[in-house]
Design a protein that fits this description.
The chain has 103 residues and is mostly helical. It is 77% helix and 0% strand. It folds into two domains: 63 residues; 33 residues, no CATH class. The protein is flat, with a radius of gyration of 22 Å. The termini are far apart.
Length: 103
Amino acid sequence: MADIPAPSPLPRLWARIDKVWLLVLAIPLVVLALDPPAAWPTVTNAFAALMHTAPFILFAVSAIGYLKATGSEALVAKAFQGRETRMIIVAALAGGLSPFCSG
């Protein structure tokens, strides 16, 4: 009887890893390799930008969690049903008033 080698856990691990996080780690390493003096400012600027938008991200995640927990997302979804013109206006107002549109 032939011995069948156990499958390597590496392909399963590779499939489970989110490739975006690998890119988040790879970009500073590429900057470090290509332009070492710019590596630290790149990391600190990216972190500062993340900290600047973190309150808005936390608010958005909390609001979505609240809407899902209370079942209110169906009510919000109704605002985007019906006449196309009204949906476009409501979506434009919501997007225009959201804090992510400010620089």
